[in-house]
Specification:
Elements lengths: L3 E8 L14 E2 L2 E2 H11 L4 E6 L3 H7 L6 E4 L7 H9 L6 E8 L7 H11 L8 E6 L2 E9 L3 H4 L7 H6 L6 E5 L11 H14 L2
Parallel strand pairs: 1-4, 1-6, 4-5, 7-9
Antiparallel strand pairs: 2-3, 6-8, 7-8
């Protein structure tokens, strides 16, 4: 890979709908966040960052962050965009693009990340925006080229990333992924669905 690519894992949520820190939910013998961090570790990133905020003291104490720069999202209650803004200043100066992942989506695969990076860095330079087109819709991970970093710095609110993708300001590269959108965890039902899904997938 000739481009300097960073992986940014957003894990600063306050888990209001769940009622307890979802980052620390038991998952495959460890925590949910540990599982997503392992996916990012196995991906071809030149730099790895993770944002924390909700229950930060507990999370930092219980989760293995080896290989990651931990960024404290001071305004995490304002939505995921505040975590992105908090992390921008920690990017290496030569970063050409950022792959954004969610800390509650352990089902994201390394192959999907690799396909996203390959598509976004093909041709004459990094694409401004790229997303995964799963069989049932658009989903993470997302790619942001350095030409949109200034736009990311101005984001506000929880759905601001989607508004940028849908703004028409930049072309959006869609990368086909032959799978359904990975499950995320916002509620207890989501967590139970994730565990049930993993049981079905495991012979």
């Amino acid at each position: 890979m000739t481009e300097h690519v960073a992986g940014l894992l957003l894990a600063a949520g306050s888990s209001r709908r769940l009622g307890q820190p979802k980052q620390l939910l038991p998952y495959k013998g460890r925590t949910l966040l540990d599982a997503t961090l392992d996916v990012a570790r196995a991906a071809p990133f030149d730099q790895r960052l993770v944002t924390v905020g909700g229950a930060a003291d507990e999370v930092v104490h219980q989760v293995n962050f080896d290989g990651f720069k931990v960024v404290d999202s001071l305004h995490f209650t304002d939505g995921c965009s505040s975590s992105i803004v908090s992390a921008l200043s920690s990017l290496a100066a030569d970063t050409q693009g950022v792959v954004m992942l969610l800390g509650d989506q352990p089902g994201i695969t390394v192959s999907a990340i690799e396909s996203l990076i390959a598509a976004a860095t093909a041709g004459g330079g990094p694409a401004p925006l790229a997303v995964c087109r799963y069989t049932d819709g658009i989903g993470h991970p997302f790619w942001f080229g350095r030409q949109v970093f200034s736009d990311l710095a101005e984001l506000h609110g929880d759905k601001a990333v989607w508004k940028l993708l849908e703004s028409g300001l930049y072309p959006v590269t869609e990368v086909p992924i032959d799978a359904t959108i990975p499950l995320d965890v916002d509620t207890w039902d989501d967590y139970e669905n994730l565990l049930a899904h993993d049981q079905v997938q495991t012979p």
